[in-house]
Amino acid sequence: MPYPVLQLAQNQHPGLACFPGIADNPDMTLSIKQSKNLLSFDQFSFDPETLELFKQHQRIALAPKPAQLLHALIKTAPGVVSRANAQTLLWPNSAFIEIEQGLNACVRQLRTALGDNANSPSYIETLPKRGYRLIVPVRVATEPTANARYWPTSMVAGLILFIIAIVVLLNWNNNKVDQDLATQNTKSLEYLTRAQALRDRNQNEDMENALALYEALSLELPRSAAALAGKAFTLSQLAVRNWSSAQQNYNLALEFARAADTIQPLPDAAAAQGFAQLNGALNPELALAHFQAALKLDNNHIDAYLGMAAALSALGQHSQAIDAATTAARLSPRSYSARSDRCWYMLFDDRYAEALDACSWATEIDGNHSFSYLGVALAAENDPQRAEQALQNYLLHSQVQFKSGDIQNGGISCNPAARMVEHAETGKTSSYETAALYALCGQLEQTRFWLMQATQEQYPAIMYYPADPRFDSLRSQLPSLKTLLPTSPFD
Questions:
Q1: Which residues face 40 on adjacent strands?
Q2: How many CB atoms lie within 10 A of CB 128?
């Protein structure tokens, strides 16, 4: 199923200004969850829930790991956060060989955000061979409000025109020189190569380590489009993997991608914007345009093909989605996501015989993912024994696991759905998957309830609901997607 690229945070977070001079773009409106209290020191306030930093009610650019470090310093103040504890916090159980440099980069970036000086610190003191501590008092403050300050429209317009004029003058002669800085420096090129290798491993910890390399490179070369685009793309992939901070990471990805675009258009930046628009804003049309832009820049960008396939399927163009996923599978024959997504697009397109082969192939590539087994179970409509075995494998590899009584009369009972509720209520899994399990066992009212929950969460998989075969037996009694999302672009 196309869910490996379609995870979304249940808690929405505000956009973060993560690149100096790049303002929030109004074309992506996201709901905001504010904490009741902020932790304040000197002129700064810090939101411990969203990990946002403010200075006099204005957001300050701060990437995720420096924000985590600041949170630790605030909680520990006036005590010391040791380097060992900081490394464990930021890179738990990591064998990342650049972890020392990564921590140094985090501290530098945090000091830059605070306007601090390591030689004469006002906020963060370094204790040689020990660690770091916050040297200003911390107090509880009220949260900033949306109307904290007003600027006259004429002043804003004049300021924008002035900034544009300055930027044009400064970049007229040197933009082409700056755009490839990272690839012209041997050490920087090595960082980019290693970050790409970490990304290719496609594991959470490797993605975090790749992000640390990109952040370190951005500190050395702030105008490196490659570093900014790499950060944007990596954040978009971390958003897929971490439900609790997905929206924050999508917003960060948009900021860095747009910053990269001002220097040089790169495929990673375009793909990052595609995933943010698809999964963060549920806007497959705009996402599709970004993925197509990425492929114009690099027609071998596997993730852009995967994203384009997901966007096409969300728009009901399942045949074209299959073609895009097939291209991704051809470019990366061992890609589980390409194989699994392709099998589900075939199910969406009612191509069950082909889906059975595709889903079976995906289970051979990686036998630990539950959705491919579920795809086999749905596609094997003419082979009850095979379908029952696939259902059992699906439950064995899912969060709810397999228990006696889960399979009854060749189909799935409502017992797994009841166990899934516990995970959904604690945010460990999605309401949409809970609804789908109840649909499989024929529980209409529970299916309706959890579908409405998924709609309120704006969970991305809801885009595929009209074609999801798990709901077919109850389809005539369930609301349409247009009813669930009346303001959506879906029919």
A1: 45, 139
A2: 5
* Strand bridging mode 124-127 / 81-82: unpaired
Q: What is the CATH number that goes with domain 37-142?
A: 1.10.10.10
> What pLDDT score does 27 carry?
34
Max mean pLDDT range (6-20, 24-38, 334-348):
334-348
The confidence score (pLDDT) of residue 205 equals: 86
Question: Rounded to 5 degrees, what are φ and ψ at 136?
Answer: -120, 150
CB 348 within 8 A of CB 464: yes
> Looking up tokens 């306007």, which residue turns up?
115
How far is residue 436's CA from residue 471's CA, in Å, rounded to a whole number? 7
Residue 102 CB-density burial (10 A; 0-12 exposed, 13-18 middle, 19+ buried): buried
Where exactly are the structural domains of the chain?
37-142, 413-491
Asked whether 324 and 312 are in contact (CB, 8 A), the reply is yes
Alpha helices in 262-369 (DSSP H): 267-275, 284-297, 302-314, 318-331, 336-348, 352-365
3-state helix, strand, coil in the chain (%, to 5): 60, 5, 35
CA distance 436 to 439: 5
Q: Count the neighbouring beta carbons within 10 Å of the beta carbon of residue 402.
A: 16
Alpha-carbon distance of 370 to 372, in angstroms, equals 6
Q: CA-CA distance, 468 to 480, in Å (whole number)?
A: 12
What's the rounded Cα separation, in Å, for the pair 359 and 108?
47
Q: Which residue has the higher pLDDT, 162 or 351?
A: 351
